[in-house]
Amino acid sequence: MGDRIKRALFIQTRLYHNQAGNTLAIVAAAMIPLTGMAGAAVDFSRAYLVKARMQQACDAGALAGRRSMSGTILTSADKQQALNYFNFNFPNQLMGSAVMSTTDANAANRVTTALDNGQLRMEATTTVPTTLLRVVGITEMRVNAECLAEEYYVNTDLMLVLDTTGSMNCYMSNALSCAQETEKPVSGTNKSKMREMRDALKTLYSNLRPAQVALEGKNLRMRIGFLQFSSTVNVGKLIRAENTAYVRSSYQYRNSSGTLKTATDWPNYSSTWLDNSWQGCIEERGTSTALTATSTTIPADAWDLDIAKIPDSDATRWAPYDYEAMSGSSRISEESMGSVTGSNFYKAACPKPAVHMKAWASQSEFDAQVDTIVTGDGATYHDLGIIWGLRMIANNGIFGYRNPDKFNNVKVRRTIVFMTDGEMSPFRDAYSAYGVAKYAGRTASTGTLDTPLEAIHTQRFKLMCAKAKSDPYYVDIWVIGVLSGQTMNSDIASCASNSSQAISVSNATDLANAFKRISDKVGNLRLGA
């Protein structure tokens, strides 16, 4: 008996002094907080994902609701529009979250919309069930999202730079090689590209009109201008309106055999002729043949590409585009240019006059201007389009005073929409704003053939697109190519501010959708916190 007692005491003594067995109890006790910590990581991550999705849905819903509003009145239809966008982006019970009420503003889990000082405020709150945190008594986590959508008012300047060459007279379904002197008539659903463009432009303004009215209500403005281009541009009357000395009154032309006319034969243009007889198309001011197809910079003496330069010499002034002076023994009026195809010069064309950006008084006034865009003619000089589109929207140069960076102390956002239906197509025989290339040799040597001449003008176009998008202009550029199912040339597409703003269209629906995207961006609302 005594031995048994001694053995029992011995075992108890060893257990007392040996603490290794205590870890079992320690580990068992620690499992609860460890599980809680691990569960917190898992459950908090899940709650974070739910909150992120909810915030995105809230932003989308608030913006949609604010877009739907008219002025500062929030209707039930506006609220429903906001909820539709919220629900699309955050379906009820996403990732196990609680069902949210859209009718009871006092419900624990709810989505609400309200007007807050002219801003649409959207709030959402719900709970996310926990998993591992349940072991420490936490069964759910609450997540919230809040957002505001407000009208972000900014002055808007928009230049529409439009290709009005002969191919625009054709149907969209015609091959790109199609070109003719008059618009093809409406035939069933077929309309000329020129007519489709007119229809799309009218719809563009219809979509922008509410934004213009809203801006004017804040003493701000939306202005839209027009520039048509082909072998030249019609900006002469606008130039002379700034200063009559900016257009040369005497200029040396060549006859149809390429011979320079003598000084005594140079036309001396009277103010009466320039004001009343001249249609207004121009020959460009001085440029440089040093700009090649691989140039990465613009030569200092390429005055035609210098937007800021104010004319102060013959080299920096423009001249009248005068087919009559360029012709041989016969005198041919500008009105007849397009029909002259048998001489040494061809593709002569004078588009309709450009129009400075202005706040249009009504849809009918805008539509009347659009209806003047008829009957394309001439060759395609994209570089002329972007040069003058930029010059007319720029904050410096001869029109710069018209285009300040701020109006009524609010920033001006500048946008160019550049629309064409074809690739660059200068010709050495064509009479363009640079004269007849094979005789004048202004952008390339007189022996340069059509293909290398095109490459040079393409590089000029690309350099001017880059200039338009950079300091000090920062123009947002959209490019629309009416290309009958073909892919847009990468040189043309690269002019757009980003790839999503270079849009190829093949039919009237595509064209309408392209202009709708533009109107949504130009007249947009932005989220504010």
Short summary:
With 529 residues, this protein is of the alpha/beta class. The protein is built from 13 helices and 15 strands. It has 2 domains: 29-150, no CATH class; 155-528, Rossmann fold.
Give the helix proportion (percent range): 25-40%
- Please give the alpha-carbon distance between the first and last residues: 86 Å
Radius of gyration: 35 Å
Shape summary:
elongated
What is the assigned CATH homologous superfamily of the largest domain? von Willebrand factor, type A domain
Largest sheet: 7 strands, mixed
Low-confidence stretches: 261-265, 327-344
**Per DSSP, what share of the residues sits in E-state strands of 2 or more residues?**
15-25%
The SS-based structural class is: alpha/beta
What is the count of distinct domains? 2
Instruction: Write the CATH architecture name of the largest domain.
Output: 3-Layer(aba) Sandwich
Q: What is the CATH fold-level name of the largest domain? A: Rossmann fold
Q: Can you count the beta strands?
A: 15
H and E string: HHHEEEEHEHHEEHEHHEEEEHHEHEHE
CATH class of the largest domain: Alpha Beta
Average pLDDT taken over every residue: 85
Tally of individual helices? 13
Summarize the topology.
Layout: H1 2-17, H2 22-68, H3 76-89, E1 110-116, E2 119-129, E3 140-150, E4 155-163, H4 193-217, E5 222-229, H5 236-242, H6 271-277, E6 282-283, E7 319-320, H7 323-326, E8 355-358, H8 363-370, H9 382-393, E9 406-407, E10 410-420, E11 431-432, E12 435-436, H10 437-440, H11 450-468, E13 476-482, H12 490-493, E14 502-505, H13 508-522, E15 526-528
Parallel strand pairs: 4-5, 4-10, 10-13, 13-14
Antiparallel strand pairs: 1-2, 2-3, 3-15, 5-8, 6-7, 9-10, 11-12
Helix pairs in contact: 2-3, 4-8, 4-13, 9-11
